[in-house]
């Protein structure tokens, strides 16, 4: 039985099909959880001070939420506080005169502490002792941003030069009070720091030298796994939050040029640098104006000659190697919430709840076949699924009333149905910190995604381009399978799903040759589906139900890879003219055979494989008793991860084995 909101119960039970009479027995309200955790809530402060404040809070108090006040705080920040129930909120900066904390933020004294007007005084108070400090100029922005990252990595205070005739006003006293013996002066701050006495000054010439020092410090504690990308000239000033994100995620900071159009070049260069070559995650702190999408020729025939693609996506058929997502919003105060909300999602009691709405117009049978199997997979993994498939099963009223109670929402169908017929952009009910996946043409756009973020969503997934329902549905199934069975985060699951489609494109070419159709649609979906939100968002992993079917598994022992096929498949899924019998943990795509009654979708086995014996300068090559036309293998040399996709034969029931051979790379 699905869980219903109080509002839904009062509106009417017959619509939701659970009860047919009003609730007459009063229930005792559940006790509210104890308050816990701290928040620093920043009002109006100059952006250079915001940069310093963010990294100093992140380094000194890593468990403290760092949020921005907003002109819409009652609808943006207050709902988060209602769910978080913080024990302490410290306002820092300037706030509207006559502010009533209980009304604006939903909390009052003693939870709300006295306001600290001076952000510099507050930030430095977090460091009562500091043998070292970093001093940065207010401009140029790249020097300030990289200096902030360095200070955060060193876990030392950051002083940003003051405006006016005395740029180091107050610095001497701050250093003396903390016993500071050494400072690092960055770029344009070097001359001002020469006036200081009694401290040793280390100079870093510019932003590049500071970024190198930052990377060196990060590497002292392990490899650099995350990159943060920003445009220092961002008109929306998202870049002021980029160092805070970098410190929170122990990431290297990459900066574009002023127009942001060199983003692809900047990221690709970082992936070739020794210090950052093994990075796995890319977090972009910028909207699509500051770091624009690139235009590429549409690989699928259709209405559009060109499509919009994130600039770090390979231009060839190469695998996608980064787990990526964007953090942005027209209201900058929402950006820190996009990192904070997923933590609430992880704390949600019980298994994750998802509403799946597919094919409401009844014209997309292949898509509905995928969707029904996505629902089965999630139920088998322990999720609570409400599945609404086809035209007769879903109403706008049910969708509107049920959506606020979900941890995830998957829409698969025409986007105009959701917007024009159901009028979802007009809905205002607060959402849980949820994952919203819109598998539709042109569904990912800043204005309508912003409405979902305003309501409380943690991430929105979709494509800004047209897409075919088959390739989109296959990608979505692979995404949720990875999320549910493998426990990957959203970004890694999206990369996994994209690479599934690229492997499937190769498999079709092997099997069908020149007869392969719609391969461009698979490439387009792999190139263009995108996460807006934290790519490291992770869904809770529930216990599978007692009657769960065993899922497809992959095992690597030395130089042997084994795909174990489950003994049981799901019961047939039939949405005329399509029929599928899928293995739990398996995959589906548009590969089918035709009999007199139906188009039979081929069940696929897919695995992402880490090879422990991988060596630099060698590439794995696989062999198998399974005919070559039935499988493909792709190798991500940078991450040292491989992907196997197979169409098992009837005689392969049980397992498929592959032998790994290592070939030396050719000398360049």
State which percent range the strand residues make up.
Answer: 15-25%
Poorly predicted sequence stretches spanning 5 or more consecutive residues = 1-27
Q: Provide the helix percentage.
A: 25-40%
- Helix-and-strand structural type: alpha/beta
Number of strands: 30
Number of continuous helical runs: 20
- Rg calc: 27 Å
Biggest beta sheet attributes: 6 strands, mixed
Strand order within the widest beta sheet: 15-14-16-17-18-19
- Overall pLDDT score: 92
What's the N-to-C terminus distance?
A: 62 Å
Name the features.
31% helix, disordered N terminus, alpha/beta, single chain, 6-stranded mixed β-sheet, Gingipain domain-containing protein
Structure, explained:
The protein is an alpha/beta fold. It has 20 helices and 30 strands. The chain has a six-stranded mixed β-sheet with strand order 15-14-16-17-18-19, with helices on both faces. The longest helix is centred in the C-terminal third of the chain and has 23 residues, at 490-512. The protein is globular and about 85 Å long. Mean pLDDT is 92; it is low at 1-27.
Give the topology, please.
Layout: H1 6-11, H2 13-16, E1 38-42, H3 47-60, E2 65-68, H4 73-84, E3 88-92, H5 101-105, H6 119-125, E4 132-136, H7 141-154, E5 158-160, H8 171-178, E6 182-186, H9 190-193, E7 200-204, H10 207-219, E8 226-230, H11 242-248, E9 252-255, H12 263-270, E10 281-284, E11 294-297, E12 306-309, E13 323-326, H13 334-347, E14 353-358, H14 365-381, E15 384-389, H15 396-402, E16 408-412, H16 415-421, E17 435-439, H17 446-455, E18 459-462, H18 469-485, H19 490-512, H20 519-528, E19 530-533, E20 553-557, E21 560-564, E22 573-575, E23 578-580, E24 592-594, E25 599-601, E26 605-610, E27 618-623, E28 631-636, E29 641-646, E30 655-664
Parallel strand pairs: 1-2, 1-3, 4-5, 4-6, 6-7, 8-9, 8-10, 10-13, 14-15, 14-16, 16-17, 17-18, 23-25
Antiparallel strand pairs: 11-12, 18-19, 20-21, 21-30, 22-23, 24-25, 26-29, 27-30, 28-29
């Amino acid at each position: 039985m699905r869980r219903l909101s109080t509002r839904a119960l009062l509106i009417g039970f017959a619509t939701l099909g659970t009860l047919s009479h009003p609730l007459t027995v009063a229930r005792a309200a559940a006790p509210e959880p104890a308050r816990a955790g701290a928040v620093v809530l920043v009002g109006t402060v100059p952006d250079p001070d915001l940069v310093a404040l963010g990294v100093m809070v992140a380094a000194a108090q890593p468990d403290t939420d760092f949020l921005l006040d907003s002109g819409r705080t009652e609808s943006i920040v207050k709902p988060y506080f209602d769910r978080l129930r913080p024990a302490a909120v410290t306002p820092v900066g300037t706030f509207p005169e006559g502010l009533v904390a209980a009304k604006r933020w939903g909390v009052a004294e003693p939870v709300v502490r006295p306001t600290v007007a001076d952000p510099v005084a507050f930030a430095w108070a977090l460091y009562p002792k500091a043998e070292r400090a970093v001093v940065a100029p207010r401009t140029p922005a790249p020097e300030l941003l990289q200096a902030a990252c360095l200070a955060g990595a060193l876990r030392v205070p950051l002083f940003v030069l003051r405006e006016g005739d005395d740029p180091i006003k107050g610095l001497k006293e701050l250093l003396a009070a903390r016993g500071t013996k050494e400072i690092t002066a960055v770029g344009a701050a070097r001359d001002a720091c020469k006036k200081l006495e009694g401290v040793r000054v280390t100079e870093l010439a510019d932003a590049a030298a500071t970024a190198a020092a930052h990377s060196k410090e990060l590497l002292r504690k392990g490899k650099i796994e995350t990159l943060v990308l920003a445009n220092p000239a961002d008109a929306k000033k998202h870049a002021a939050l980029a160092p805070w994100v970098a410190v929170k995620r122990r990431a290297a900071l990459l900066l574009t040029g002023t127009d942001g159009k060199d983003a692809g070049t900047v990221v690709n260069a970082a992936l070739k640098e020794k210090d950052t070559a093994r990075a796995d995650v890319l977090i972009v702190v910028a909207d699509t104006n500051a770091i624009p999408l690139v235009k590429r020729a549409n690989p699928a025939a259709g209405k559009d000659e060109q499509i919009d693609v994130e600039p770090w996506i390979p231009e060839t058929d190469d695998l996608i190697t980064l787990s990526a997502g964007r953090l942005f919003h027209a209201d900058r105060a929402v950006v820190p919430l996009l990192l904070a909300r997923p933590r609430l999602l992880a704390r949600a009691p019980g298994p994750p709840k998802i509403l799946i709405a597919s094919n409401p117009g009844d014209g997309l049978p292949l898509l509905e076949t995928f969707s029904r199997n996505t629902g089965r997979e999630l139920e088998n993994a322990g999720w609570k699924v409400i599945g609404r498939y086809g035209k007769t099963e879903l109403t706008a009223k049910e969708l509107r009333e049920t959506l606020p109670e979900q941890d995830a929402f998957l829409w698969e169908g025409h986007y105009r149905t959701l917007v024009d017929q159901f009028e979802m952009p007009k809905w205002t009910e607060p959402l849980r910190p949820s994952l919203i996946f819109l598998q539709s043409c042109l569904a990912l756009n800043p204005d309508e995604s912003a409405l979902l973020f305003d309501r409380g969503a943690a991430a929105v997934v979709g494509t800004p381009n047209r897409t075919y329902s088959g390739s989109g549905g296959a990608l979505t199934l692979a995404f949720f399978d990875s999320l549910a069975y493998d426990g990957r985060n959203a970004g890694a699951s999206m990369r996994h799903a994209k690479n599934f489609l690229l492997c499937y494109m190769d498999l079709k070419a092997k099997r069908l040759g020149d007869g392969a159709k719609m391969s461009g649609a698979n490439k387009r979906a792999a190139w263009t589906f995108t996460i807006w939100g934290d790519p490291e968002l992770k869904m809770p992993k529930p216990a599978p139900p007692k009657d769960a079917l065993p899922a497809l598994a992959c095992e690597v022992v030395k130089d042997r890879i084994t795909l174990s096929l489950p003994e049981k498949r799901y019961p047939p899924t039939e949405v005329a003219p399509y029929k599928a019998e899928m293995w739990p943990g398996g995959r589906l795509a548009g590969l089918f055979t035709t009999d007199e009654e139906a188009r039979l979708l081929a069940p696929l086995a897919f695995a992402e494989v880490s090879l422990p014996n991988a060596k630099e300068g060698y590439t794995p090559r696989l062999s198998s008793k399974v005919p070559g036309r039935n499988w493909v293998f792709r190798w991500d040399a940078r991450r040292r991860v491989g992907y196997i996709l197979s169409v098992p034969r009837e005689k392969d029931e049980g397992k498929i084995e592959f032998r790994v051979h290592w070939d030396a790379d050719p000398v360049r």
